[in-house]
Amino acid sequence: NVEAMNNIMAKWCDYPLYERKEKRGLLNLDDRAAMLEARYNLIKQDGVKIQEIVVTNLTLFKATEDSDHWRNYLDYVDDMILDGFFNAVQCSLAYLLENTELNAPDIMPLMEARLELAIPDMVFVPSLEFGSEDGFMELIEGIVDDAYKLSSLIPRIAKHNGMDHYQIELD
Fold first, then answer.
1. Coil, strand, or helix at residue 20?
2. b (16+ CB within 10 A) / e for 104-118
3. Is 127 helix (H, G, I), strand (E, B) or coil?
4. What is the 8-class DSSP label of residue 27?
5. Could you give the CA distance from residue 93 to residue 99 in angstroms, rounded to a whole number?
6. Closest by alpha carbon to 136, among 124, 147, 148, 126?
7. Rounded distance, CA 54 to CA 63, Å?
8. What is the DSSP letter of 113?
9. What percent of the chain has pLDDT over 90?
């Protein structure tokens, strides 16, 4: 059953949260909300499967929920899930890093900012002003936050440790 849980979590890093539209295109954020919802739903469904496996193991091991052996097992599974989330977040962040590397050969731009005429001014879209509500920095922070939020979607297996989810340890 541990292998089944590992197989479930391995899918989390099959591909990053956001990818280019095409091999040499820009980062696909056109339907960001829909992509995010789909990935978050996948993680939540996987969390239910993992919870079911843990409940099954309680019966198979003929353990009691308050025994030290069972708590040690829950700590072990909890660490596995934390590693799974670490790998999922790392997959998305590594993709961003690899595709923004200055010295990498043949790297095409990952994102764009357009200079538009907004009479009587010229403005960048998204805004390049630091602190702008809909600016480029806010977009980047949102993309990174989306990746980290994956780890808040499954309740902790080892509830006896007093944490509700896994994001606390990844932040």
1. strand
2. eeeeeeeeeeeeeee
3. strand
4. B
5. 10
6. 126
7. 11
8. -
9. 75
pTM of the model: 0.89
**Span 76-95, pLDDT tens digits:** 999 999 999 999 999 999 99
Burial zone of 69 (CB within 10 Å; 0-12 exposed, 13-18 middle, 19+ buried): exposed
Nearest to 80 by CA among 53, 40, 42: 53
For residues 17 and 147, the answer to whether their CB atoms sit within 8 Å is: yes
Cα separation, 133 vs 162, in Å, equals: 35
Question: Has residue 161 got a pLDDT over 90?
Answer: no
What is the residue type of 145? D
Name 40's bridge partners.
none
> Phi then psi for 98, rounded to 5 degrees?
-60, -35
Q: Assign residue 25 a region (left: φ > 0; alpha: ψ between -120 and 50; beta: otherwise).
A: beta
Can you read off the two tokens belonging to residue 170?
């990844």
Strands (E), the chain: 114-118, 121-125
Sort 124 into a burial class: Cβ within 10 Å, 0-12 / 13-18 / 19+. middle
Residue 105: is the preceding peptide bond cis (ω within 30°)?
A: no
